[in-house]
Amino acid sequence: MSETTEPEPEHERIDPEYDHRREEGVNEAALEALLDEYAIGRDDHKNAPAFVIRPDDVQEVLRLLRDEAGFDHLSCITPQQYEDRYESIIHMTKYDRRTHEVTLVVPLPTADPVCESAEPVFRTADWHEREAYDLVGIEYEGHPNLTRILLPESWQGHPLSLDYDQNKPQVVQYTKHANPLEQSHRTPESETMMINIGPHHPATHGVLHLETVLDGETVEDVEPDVGYLHRCEEQMCQQGTYRHQIIPYSNRWDYTANLPNEWAVARAIEDIADIEVPEYAQVLRTMSTEFGRMLGHFLALGTFALDVFGDFTAIFQYAFRDREVIQDILEDLTGQRMMFYYFRLGGISWDLPEPREEFIEKCRDFLDALPAKMDEYHALITGNEIFQKRTIDTGFIAPAVAKNYGCTGPVARGSGIDYDLRRDDPYGYYEHLDWNVVTEEGCDNHARMLVRMHEIEESAKIIEQCLDLVEDWPEDDRTVQSNVPRTLKPDPGTETYRAVESAKGELGIYIRADGSNSPARFKIRSPCFHNLSALPEMAEGEYVADLIASLGSLDIVLGSVDR
């Protein structure tokens, strides 16, 4: 574990996000000098300096930024179409310095939107660019497999392009899955077999289809096939208003740990609209979000044990026992048990329920009992011989490979990558609290589960400190919302990319305003989408049983993968 910096005793302003990022941000002059040969213009993005580059310089610029300036994290690619052009926007940052960000804007002609692929430099661009091609229609030259990813191959048109007819009926023809290895057996005696795992297999955590090629019990090739739960969330957010209609959608993405989703949306909109959040509301946001993180990690713990050694009666039910207590607490706080909608722009919906003392005592009772319960989990899980054999040294993903695929959250931290946006890109009240970022060096399925178990304990530390703060907070200073206009219309052309640390990793939102009360473009950077793309690296060459364990260790939610 690596400790965060000690909290300062006094703070002039508790929400110094913009100033903090400018102080800690990237050296723009150095970037201008580095990209002088390639930049054909500048753009104005609120979160980072933006450079306009030519479509045939993408790989050269990315290598330059990675090798010369240390930008080793391609966090998101946002495609969009204007009346006169397409754009492929690449959001770059660093795993060891999150506040160092740079944006590359690649304009493309409307008649022939072709851009050089970033995949040869960053493997994570594979799925990014397939989604951009599928939904917007941008083609990426040099991409190894530029096929649709969310929609069937026979789909006509690109749903997020401006000329797409939303009312035109579609006749979808499905094709037979081909075995990619049937002509390349390793030996004359070897025969590969293709099997479909999912989309209705209980171990695929929803509606995920794994096209798997086996040689005996060994996984020779696996290709995750997503899109079965695609619900057009980005399009619905573009049709909703900033003030009230977008945040509720976010609860449906990662529906196992919803509150960080709400914060991701709120953070992005508050950035483009220059909305401040009161200090008291920041504390309650932080506390409620850590309860939400626990919700996700307890579910991950129980379902993973069920996947790995079929333990339903003990671990699965123990995990749900503790998850139910948290849901009771959050129901008291938010009024809902699942789709909370507790965040509002500029703060939260309301203060602690009355009587406050009773609610705080209920929270403390849960926290006081948690250490003994975590000892139970360690005895039942980490000390279990079957669990150890199924998880230790299986699903291995090296740190360099995890970074190349854009992995974040417990998946990255389980490979020793010390990266957590709560500390590295401070928001809320996190930088003023005493807590640790949890990392493990095992790089395997076991390490990823250990990270989640220890993060539950760290969330408890954060919540305990927040309870101390709100308990002693002066009654006349308990402001839960700032004064936000009823109708928000950010300046046209305002663009930002903001992210938070969800239970699954970096959840980012790109927004472009057009002067109306709804975004012109709303892009969701899903941590589950990126983590799942690394599954072949973890599973190929291992047994099919290890594939199931590796998939479970990713803790994906298909509502977040497909959006």
From TrEMBL:
Q: Which residues form the NADH-quinone oxidoreductase subunit D domain?
A: 313-563
Instruction: List the top taxonomic levels of the source.
Output: Archaea, Methanobacteriati, Methanobacteriota, Stenosarchaea group, Halobacteria
Q: Which UniProt keywords apply?
A: Cell membrane, Membrane, Multifunctional enzyme, NAD
Family, similarity comment: In the C-terminal section; belongs to the complex I 49 kDa subunit family.
| Assembly, per entry | NDH-1 is composed of 13 different subunits. Subunits NuoB, CD, E, F, and G constitute the peripheral sector of the complex.
- Reaction(s) this enzyme catalyzes, per UniProt: a quinone + NADH + 5 H(+)(in) = a quinol + NAD(+) + 4 H(+)(out)
Membrane topology value: Peripheral membrane protein
GO cellular component entries: plasma membrane
Cite the residue spans of the region called Disordered: 1-23
Q: Which residues form the NADH:ubiquinone oxidoreductase 30kDa subunit domain?
A: 52-169
Q: Where in the cell is it found?
A: Cell membrane
| InterPro entries xrefs | NADH_Q_OxRdtase_suD, NADH_quin_OxRdtase_su_C/D-like, NADH_UbQ_OxRdtase_30kDa_su, NDH1_su_D/H, NiFe-Hase_large
Query: What is the protein's given name?
Result: NADH-quinone oxidoreductase subunit C/D
- The annotated regions of Basic and acidic residues compositional bias extend over 8-23
SUPFAM superfamilies in UniProt: HydB/Nqo4-like (SSF56762), Nqo5-like (SSF143243)
Give the transmembrane ranges. none
Primary place of residence?
membrane
Instruction: Enumerate the GO terms in the molecular function aspect.
Output: NAD binding; NADH dehydrogenase (ubiquinone) activity; oxidoreductase activity, acting on NAD(P)H; quinone binding
One Pfam entry for this protein is Complex1_30kDa
Record flagged with keyword Iron-sulfur = no
